[in-house]
Structure formats: structure tokens, C-alpha cells
Amino acid sequence: MRLGETPTSITRAGFPNLGKKGDPITPVVRAYQELGVRVSPDAITQRRAGRTSGADIDRAVDAAKIVEHGRIPSRDIFFTEYGALGIKNRAKRTDDRSRAFRSSGLRMKLADELGVPGDILGDLARTLRIDLFYTPVDQLGAAFLVCFRETVEAYLRDLKRSNNRQKSEEISRKWNRARTVRNFYGILLHEPRATVTAWTPYEMEPVWTLSKNRLDHHSPLTPFDAMVLSGLDGDKSDQAIIVKIKADIGITVTRQSIDYYRAFLMGRIATKAQKAAQLNSEIQEPTTNGGNHQSGF
Questions:
Q1: Residue 101 pairs with which residues in a beta bridge?
Q2: CB 3.0-4.6 Å disulfide test: which of 168, 214, 232, 237 passes with 219?
Q3: Closest CA to 79 of 203, 187, 172
Q4: Residue ranges per domain, the chain?
Q5: C-alpha to C-alpha distances, 56 to 35, 42, 43, 216, 240, nearest whole angstrom
Q6: Element containing residue 245 per DSSP (H, E)
């Protein structure tokens, strides 16, 4: 499967057969659950009847395989590129009495260069912050933690200078209680859009540092990655994840946001560069069939 492409095959090597029309469904559902795959009875019924291609079941199987593998390099490549382009494109201000960076237009500029719709990119950026809220400190790396704390301090200083003294002092009081990534995003995710948008250009360097480190050190899935891919404590519904985020952080996320992030983790949302690299890899690694070379498409 290429990055950015939805799988349509129904091959499930190593997974239970779906059976035929009229066969009991519950044993099949349970067999998949034991392998960490959430498949609904309706999906099985529809596939047996030939009314669907089975793509939704393929996606569930692919998600289980990612969890078993334990790594998602495409996630780290995406956010390394996102962070690098953000650093390159964030516009600096020259007025000493305002923030160091302009946030206006940055998201759409990045969306254009990455080849990802702006609304989806914004959703992924927000979900990354939720992911960081749940990520244990020992999975973040020392370089990121230093960069992150310095960036937060710079952001709060600039916020104070830019006629937002009250907001800066309010966030600073909460931040000083525990200068952790979890605490900061627990604060930021409650703030109005303007405050979050102002943070976005500052965030680029920590995001790049984190993602590059994850890529270089083959970092494992985060707890939130695993939650989105395989469910929460045996509950495979997205609603369980939404309820947990509401209880832990106090914010509401939509099923669409969960769907976007799951699609992203599975490689169906990718940058232009990632898609081009995947295509080039397929071209460079032909298969041989009776002496004829094939491109792998």
C-alpha cells in the first residue's frame, strides 16, 4: 500500500477467515479481538454478502500490524518535515514590543508546501498536542525537553510584551506549578484559538527536535498512538477514547479527529514528499515475473 492511499484488498494473511454467509459471526469477532483487531459484526455480514470490499476490515488488520510492529516511521518523517518547514516559513516580527513570530497564514503556507489540506493539518497539530500530553517523559528525550522548556519561556515572555500581559501571567502561574510538557498542553488545549495560534510558530522547533530524535532512535508507539490504533482497555470504540480525553484534559474531540489521526498513523495522510519517496521506492524495486521487470504498481 502506498502512503496516502486507502487499501482495498481483502487479504488477511495470518488472520481468521471471515467465513461465508450464514456462518456464526460471534466466533469470528472474538478471534479477531484476541489478535487485537476490532471488527464489527456488521462489517463481517456486509463483506460476506459482497456488499462491501472489506476495506474497513483491512484497515483494522493494518492497525493491528502496526501495533505489533511497534513503530511508525512515517509519523516521524511527517512531523520532521512539518517542523522544518515551519521553522523555515515562520515570519519574524521586527517590533520589539510584540511576539517574535507572526502566526497569520502559517498553517495554510505549510498545508500548501506539504500537500495536506489545511483543516486536516490543523487537526493533526491539535492531536499531536494531545499525544504529547499522554507521552511519558522517558519517551520524549532530553534534547526535546530542554528545547521545549526554553520555547515555552520565550513564548510567555513575548506574549507578555504583545499587550497580552494578563494572559501571559495567567498561563505562567499555571506553568510554574509544574514545568512539564503534560502540564503545558493541559493548559494550552483549554485556551482560545488566538492564544493557541500564537503558540504555533514557536512550537515548530520542539516538534522538529522531537520527531527527528524519534526517527533517529526508532522510537516506539506512544500510549496515545496505541490507544487510537487498538482501542482503550479492551473497548474498541472511538467514543471510549473521546470520553477518556474529556476526563483527563477536559476538552472535547470529535470522531473525525480520531479518524484523521488513525488514518495518519496508517499512512493514508502523507506529505507530497512522502508520497513521492514511496512511489520512487516502488519504481526502484521492480519484481521479476518470467523475465519481465514490473514496476510494482
A1: 92
A2: 214
A3: 203
A4: 1-66, 73-273
A5: 16, 11, 7, 32, 19
A6: helix 238-249
